[in-house]
Amino acid sequence: MTDTSTATRTWAIDPTHSVLEFAVTHMMFTTAKGRFLDFAGTIVFDERDVERSRVDVTIRTGSIHTGNPDRDTHLRSPDFFDVEAFPIATFHSTGVEVRGPSRFDVRGDLTIRGVTREVVMETVFNGTGTIPGGPEVAGFQAMATFSRKDFGLNWNVALEGGGVLVSDEVRLTLDIQASRADA
Fold first, then answer.
1. Whose CB has fewer CB within 10 Å in the chain, the N or C terminal residue?
2. φ/ψ (deg, to 5) at 6
3. C-alpha to C-alpha distances, 60 to 8, 57, 86, 102, 151, nearest whole angstrom
């Protein structure tokens, strides 16, 4: 990062160069993945005092995409995200804890279906650079695991041989490119 009077920068998440992906176990032994295609957010990142940083993200739940139109329709229904009643999911950070060089935990409130629970995003700061002829950008990766049932996403089917169709555990992964918003 270039030397300036302050190490605090505001970054706008670029959804065209970012991925917000989730994964669950399907049939007790395979992985089903999906993405949200419409999301936005702001990262206020203080390189000198990372614990003063903060993150806010908004996700349009109807933008869910798994590559299977029937599954996407079911995920938008009241069985899962109920996008008619709850079109937005959000994440608002409440604290940051340094875990090592360029590694930190971002603790925050995740709201899905009107239910808010605390989650911890294991986060890596990958650095900054300038796109040729374009803006300065920063890269971040984050991952969290949480119970979907904690957010009222309870639908499931018991399998004949035992177990359930969809795991309770959700793995959320973000690969973020964000553009300087305060330049």
1. C
2. -140, 150
3. 28, 10, 9, 29, 16
The pLDDT of residue 161 is 86
Residue type present at position 19: V
Containing 47, the helix (H) or strand (E) segment is none
By DSSP bridging, strand 39-46 and strand 8-13 are antiparallel
> Rounded distance, CA 91 to CA 43, Å?
11
Q: What is the pLDDT of residue 3?
A: 41
SS3 content of the chain, % helix, strand, coil (to 5): 10, 55, 30
Does residue 1 register a pLDDT over 50? no
Residue pointed to by tokens 């969290």:
144
> Distances in Å between the alpha carbon of 165 and those of 145, 155, 180?
18, 10, 42
Domain map (residue ranges) of the chain: 8-180
**β-strand 19-26 against 103-112: which pairing, if any?**
unpaired
Global model pTM greater than 0.85: yes
- In 37-114, at which residue ranges do the beta strands (DSSP E only) sit? 39-46, 54-60, 64-65, 88-100, 103-112
Q: The tokens of 32 are what?
A: 């089903």
pLDDT of residue 182: 84
Per-residue pLDDT reduced to its tens digit, 46-57: 989 999 999 999
Annotation: CATH topology of 8-180: Lipocalin (2.40.128)
